[in-house]
Design goal:
It is a single chain. With 470 residues, the protein is an alpha+beta fold. The chain is 36% helix and 26% strand. The protein contains twelve helices and 20 strands. The strands form six sheets. Strands 3-2-1-7-12 form a five-stranded mixed sheet, with helices on both faces. Helix 9 links the parallel strand 18 and strand 19. It is globular. The two termini are 33 Å apart.
Amino acid sequence: MANYIDNMENRENIAVGLDIGTTKIVAMIGKKNEYGKLEILGIGKSKSLGVARGVVNNITQTIQSIQQAVMEAEENSGYKINDVVVGIAGQHIRSIQHTDYISRNNPEEVISGKDIQLLIDQVNKLAMLPGEEIIHVLPQEFKIDGQSEIKEPIGMYGGRLEASFHVVVGQASSIRNVGRCIQSSGIELSGLTLEPLASADAVLSQEEKEAGVALIDIGGGTTDLAIFKDGIIRHTAVVPFGGNVITEDIKEGCSIIEKQAELLKVKFGSAWPGENKDNEIVSIPGLRGREPKEISLKNLSKIIHARVVEIIEQVFAEIKAYGHEDPRKKLIAGIVLTGGGSQLQHIKQLVEYITGMDTRIGYPNEHLAGNSSEDISSPLYATAVGLVMNSIANNTQSAYKLEVTQAAPQPKQIVRPVVEEPIETPIQEIEETKAVNKVEREIETTENKIRRSFFDKYVDKIKDFLDNAE
């Protein structure tokens, strides 16, 4: 067992992200290379069977899907997954703007991280609707003794510290169900991240966030929105429609089975009906010896177009609710589309037509190492890449390399144990390493530090709930 921890001092910062989506579950293992880029070591994907519109509705099936994705990622990488950062989404997510302040006892003392944390804790005590809990408390701008537009208050002096916050709220039961699925799959939950924020980390540049940009992540069950301006998150929303409703419309409109509808959408679908000629027809094999069914691609595009317009108009209503038409809130960088739904033909042109805003497709390849495969740099994996980046920022050791040594009488014991005998030495050393990392992280920016300290508490809260459950 000593060989298992021989290289702990020189250990790599291996990060793991788990994207629990409506159509797929993706486990991704990665690390930063010497150039600061993300190197993907392994990826596992499974069909998501127990999730509807971003919310777990079948614990058993979700656990099986998670285990399948995790096992595939472990086999591809040669690493054993210990813990994961998980994305949270679903129609239960909502966001609010809130302003709060504290009065400091000694204005002559320098403002420190403790003052910021005191203000954050105060916001966390806000009364929510029954069954809701605060997921994110994201500081936007600070004000000290009336002086506004301060982004980094640490090191300044003042008596009254005020801040505006972007508060993300979700259903406690939905979040705990995700935690229960992770724990029952034999892995630990190291962090929670709102999925549109993870996708934003993967596909947006800092320049775009400064200029003002709306990220639209079109997934299978939901379409997520994140708006940035002046480098700060300004608005988030989740629209409870995605690629699955388009497939459902094709299935009903063409009277075919779901599998055929999905293939039609991916291979021949277009969001712009004018692109298809009337004589373009695709033949679908009939069921059990029945006659093949002929489907006009123009009609197919009309079905897709109607639903995509509805989704984009709902998202655009959220962009207007943020105040995009106000010159001071104008999103100069326009819209970035990502997620599996962004791969639909001509969707970029349709979004530009509906919104009048410049649009591009967002790929996570900017942060990926040059040797990454084309599959991984697809918009399909934007959220998973963002979750791995989030895990790297937490500086945790989320996976360990499996090494079989000659001296060990039972090589298989190198794998992380299930329940029989807890391994004390590695855990102890990991905790010591975490303590060192915690000290090093004290010098990070206010936003990252606050975000992480809050999530540590929130994840602990979920763990306590699960441990105390029957």
